[in-house]
Predict the 3D structure of the following.
Amino acid sequence: MERHYEDNCRKGVEQISSHCRNYGFERALTYFLQSMVENQDFYEMLSSDNFESEAMHDNIIILLEQLVSQHFPAEDTDIWDIKFYSSAIKGIIDFWINSGMKQSPEEICHLCTERLKCK
């Protein structure tokens, strides 16, 4: 069962990565968050303490690292910044999921992009 979820998560990451390459950071992050709303039960299960899957969490972090690295100009890219901001965005997303996804994907995207601009 867990393997099925990992495969679906991996496919989702690939689709969202493609979206990011084609449309940029903000639209790709919004798209990712919208897919979370559409699959809310899955993401609530994924973020629960009862579900452990390193592979799925790793896939989400890899996706966020790709999104964040596209946000920064190539000459300003620092792996430490990418790791820091990716983990921070993952924390925001986890909190959003665990608090019932009351804000829209656009609001969460705006919150994340505003934090990235402070660099």
